[in-house]
C-alpha cells in the first residue's frame, strides 16, 4: 500500500461515517480532563453513537498490555479520543495501533503537536468525524526488544522513539551499533535515540536531529551529546534492523516513548526495527497540516 493510499482511508462511500463506537482516554493528572471526558461521552451518545471512558487509573503498562476487560471492550471500537497532550496520544497509540483504531487528539496539554483539536473546538471537530468528514493518517511505529545473555527482557512498541542512555551515574555510555548485521559505529555519548518520523520532532529534534515528514517510513539515529565519536544523525530505510550493544562495563537504561523499560548491563543488547503495527489518526485538517503545525508549535515567536 502506497503512502497516498494509507492516508485516504477513514470514511465509507458517500461520506457516511463508519464510527459507531468511541472510547475516550483522558489524562488523570489534568483536573479538567475527567469532567470533559464525561461531557464528551454524553455528547457522543446523544448523537446515537456508543461511547465509554477508559478507566483513568490504568497504568501505562496495563494499557500497553491491554488487560482482558479493556481489550474486550475495545474490540469493535471505531475511534479513540484522547483528552490531554502528546503524552496521552503516545499512550493511546500503544493501545490503538494493534487493534487498528484511529486516534483523535483533543489538546489539553502544552504543545499538542499530534492532537487535532483544541478544547474550545472539540464539538465541531468531533462532529465532522462522526459525519464521516475526515481522512485517516498512518504513522510508522518502532518495535524494540532487549536481551540479556541471549534471553529476552521484554518487547515494546514506540510511536516516537527508543532510547538507550546512561543510567543513574552521570557517566557516558559506550554503544556499539550494527545495521542489518554490519557495523555502523561505536558511540560514546549520553545516549542514542532511535526515532520514527513522528519522533523526529521530539527528543531527536532537541538532540540536533533532522525533521522528517510523518508520511515517510524511515528510522532515524541521533546520538545525545557524543564524545569523540560520530556526531551526525543517520537516516536509515524502513526495513533495517538496528542492534545496539552496551559495552565497557557501563550501565545503561532503555526507554520507549519516555517510559523506562529496563536497566541494561555490559553485553546487553537492544534490537530495534519497524513495527508491523501503525498508529492511525483521524484528521479533519488539510493534508499539508504538518508544515503549518511545525511553524506554529516549534518556531519561537517574538
Q: Could you tell me how far the N terminus lies from the C terminus, measured between alpha carbons in angstroms?
A: 43 Å
Task: Determine the structural class based on helices, strands and strand pairing.
Answer: alpha+beta
- According to DSSP, the number of beta strands is 16
The backbone outline, from C-alpha atoms, is elongated
Strand arrangement, largest sheet? 6-5-16-13-8-9
CATH architecture of the largest domain: 3-Layer(aba) Sandwich
Helix content: 10-25%
Q: In the CATH hierarchy, what is the superfamily of the largest domain?
A: Probable inorganic polyphosphate/atp-NAD kinase, domain 1
CATH C-level class of the largest domain: Alpha Beta
Oligomer: single chain
How would you describe this protein?
- The protein has helices at 3-6, 33-45, 60-65, 68-74, 86-96, 122-130, 203-206, 289-298, and strands at 21-26, 50-53, 79-84, 103-107, 135-148, 151-158, 161-166, 173-179, 182-189, 191-195, 218-224, 234-237, 241-247, 252-256, 259-264, 269-283.
- 41% of the residues are buried.
- 21% of the residues lie in helices and 37% in strands.
- It contains 8 helices and 16 strands.
- The strands form 3 sheets. It has a 6-stranded antiparallel sheet with strand order 6-5-16-13-8-9, with helices on one face.
- It has 2 domains: 3-134 and 284-298, 3-Layer(aba) Sandwich (Rossmann fold); 141-276, Tumour Suppressor Smad4 (Sandwich).
- Strand 8 (173-179) and strand 9 (182-189) form a beta hairpin.
- With 302 residues, the chain is of the alpha+beta class.
Question: Which characteristics define this entry?
Answer:
single chain; 302 residues; alpha+beta; Rossmann fold; Tumour Suppressor Smad4; 2 domains; 6-stranded antiparallel sheet; 8 helices; 16 strands; 21% helix; disordered N terminus
Amino acid at each position: 500500500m502506497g503512502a497516498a493510499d494509507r492516508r485516504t482511508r477513514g470514511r465509507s462511500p458517500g461520506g457516511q461515517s463508519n464510527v459507531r463506537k468511541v472510547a475516550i482516554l483522558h489524562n488523570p493528572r489534568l483536573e479538567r480532563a475527567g469532567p470533559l471526558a464525561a461531557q464528551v461521552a454524553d455528547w457522543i451518545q446523544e448523537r446515537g453513537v456508543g461511547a465509554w471512558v477508559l478507566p483513568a487509573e490504568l497504568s501505562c503498562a496495563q494499557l500497553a498490555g491491554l488487560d482482558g476487560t479493556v481489550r474486550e471492550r475495545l474490540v469493535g471500537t471505531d475511534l479513540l479520543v484522547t483528552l490531554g497532550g502528546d503524552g496521552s496520544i503516545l499512550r493511546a497509540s500503544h493501545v490503538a495501533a494493534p487493534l487498528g483504531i484511529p486516534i483523535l487528539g483533543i489538546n489539553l496539554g502544552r504543545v499538542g503537536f499530534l492532537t487535532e483539536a483544541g478544547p474550545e473546538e472539540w464539538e465541531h471537530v468531533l462532529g465532522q468525524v462522526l459525519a464521516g468528514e475526515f481522512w485517516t493518517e498512518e504513522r510508522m511505529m518502532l518495535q524494540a526488544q532487549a536481551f540479556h545473555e541471549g534471553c529476552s527482557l521484554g518487547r515494546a512498541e514506540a510511536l516516537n522513539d527508543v532510547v538507550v542512555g546512561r543510567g543513574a551515574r552521570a557517566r557516558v555510555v559506550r554503544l556499539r551499533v550494527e545495521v542489518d548485521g554490519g557495523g555502523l559505529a561505536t558511540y560514546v555519548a549520553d545516549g542514542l535515540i532511535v526515532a520514527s518520523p513522528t519522533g523526529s520532532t521530539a527528543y531527536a529534534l532537541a538532540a540536533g536531529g533532522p525533521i522528517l515528514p510523518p508520511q515517510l517510513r524511515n528510522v532515524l539515529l541521533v546520538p545525545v551529546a557524543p564524545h569523540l565519536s560520530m556526531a551526525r544523525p543517520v537516516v536509515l530505510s524502513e526495513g533495517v534492523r538496528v542492534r545496539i550493544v552496551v559495552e565497557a562495563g557501563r550501565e545503561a537504561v532503555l526507554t520507549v516513548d519516555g517510559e523506562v523499560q529496563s536497566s541494561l548491563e555490559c553485553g546487553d543488547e537492544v534490537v530495534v526495527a519497524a513495527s508491523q503495527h501503525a498508529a492511525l489518526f483521524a484528521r479533519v485538517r488539510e493534508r499539508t497540516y504538518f508544515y503549518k503545525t511545525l511553524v506554529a508549535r516549534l518556531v519561537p515567536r517574538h
